Amino acid sequence: MPTKLEADQVTEALGELPGWTGDTSTIVRKVTMDDEISAEAIEKISIVANRMNHHPVVDRANSVTTFTVWTHSQGGVTDLDIVLASRISDVLRQHGIADPAQ
User: Fold this and answer.
1) Which residue from 74, 67, 71, 60 is spatially nearest to 90, judged by alpha carbons?
2) Cβ atoms of residues 65 and 38 within 8 Å
3) What does each C-alpha distance from 47 to 3, 12, 51, 62 come to in angstroms?
4) Distance in angstroms (rounded) separating the CA atoms of residues 53 and 48
5) Listed residue (80, 101, 100, 95) closest to 30, CA to CA
6) Residue 92 belongs to what H/E stretch?
7) How far apart are CA 48 and CA 3, in angstroms?
8) Which of 26, 51, 52, 88 has its Cβ near the most Cβ atoms within 10 Å?
9) How far apart are CA 50 and CA 41, in angstroms?
10) How many CB atoms lie within 10 A of CB 95?
11) How far, in Å, CA of 43 to CA of 94, rounded?
12) Cβ 94 vs Cβ 22: under 8 Å
């Protein structure tokens, strides 16, 4: 079972996840990319998420794709969310979306 993280743990984890923001309730990354790249990235992310049996909420609007992650059953951000966020960032890099400078 995933472990819900304390505020300092989320802050520390976000320090290792460029472009991600959030708190103990959710973590979020917004990425500007064209529709074709977004669709391809979301498809790959869904494969990763299915393997983990853990899925982000994905919203696409006006060239901005937003990924929101939290563990419903734990009522906030868990270690599993940090792993998923890292894997989402990996897929984005594979599609030419660089990590933002911190």
Assistant:
1) 67
2) yes
3) 23, 27, 6, 24
4) 9
5) 100
6) helix 79-94
7) 20
8) 88
9) 14
10) 16
11) 13
12) no
Question: Nearest-CA neighbor of 96 among 7, 14, 9, 33?
Answer: 33
Centroid of chain to Cα 13: 12
Q: What is the pLDDT along the chain (102 residues), one digit of tens a residue?
A: 889 999 999 999 999 999 999 999 999 999 999 999 999 999 999 999 999 999 999 999 999 999 999 999 999 999 999 999 999 999 999 999 999 876
| Structure tokens, 1 | 């079972």
Identity of residue 93: R
Hey, what are 43's tokens? 């498809």
